Amino acid sequence: MSEGPEAGRQGVEEPGGRARAPRGGFLNWALWGAALVGVAAVVYIIAQASSNQPGASSAPGQPAARAAAGFAEKFKRPGQPTPPPDYVFYDDAGKAMKLADLKGKVVVMNIWATWCAPCKVEMPTLAKLQAAYRGQPVEVVAVSIDTVEDAAKARLFIAQNDPLKFYHDREKKMPFKLVPMAPGAPTTVVYGKDGLEVGRVEGEADWASPEARAVVDAALAAG
Fold first, then answer.
1. Max Cα distance, the chain (Å)
2. What Cα–Cα distance (Å) separates residue 121 from each residue in 64, 66, 201, 206?
3. Alpha-carbon Rg of the chain, whole angstroms?
4. pLDDT one-digit tens code per residue, 157-184
5. pTM tops 0.85, yes or no
């Protein structure tokens, strides 16, 4: 005859009259312990994911040197400087243009989209970078790879980040025209006044940081 739940909680008498510890009780404790460990693991994973979201606040008192090191690690210089792609995109007035049209200026070309959260997080820092070089031969060219249908939304977002101007890659091919190709958005490439690539950042960065400005200053001084 099978035992019911109550039987599992009763002690079992061994020969000699000694009571054996109930096996059901031990199993229950084991199950509860495993469940608690599982819950703790889930809570930890959620907390880690939240802390790694784009734009998440840094812990109070975080050293500024950490942010500086972050930009320095992200900024990669090419082994062989290359010119910008011979590729057409459009300015705010809808006029076709190429990056080569800006030769003679230091160009900070950013590939972004409204669906890209890290792009939107870093855009205000690009606006600050452009404002810092007002009147100097430095041009921040934020090229949207949004669809034609979403161009109005992209234009509105750029308008909220003055003094940046709206540029649009209607065919969304700029990332593939770069050498090497951009792995995604955001990708930001700095070109010197000679039109050759100085370096790039793949991913979000603080372009208002002293380290980013040092890159632009060096490109300006290179003449």
1. 100
2. 18, 18, 15, 9
3. 29
4. 999 999 999 999 999 999 999 999 999 9
5. no
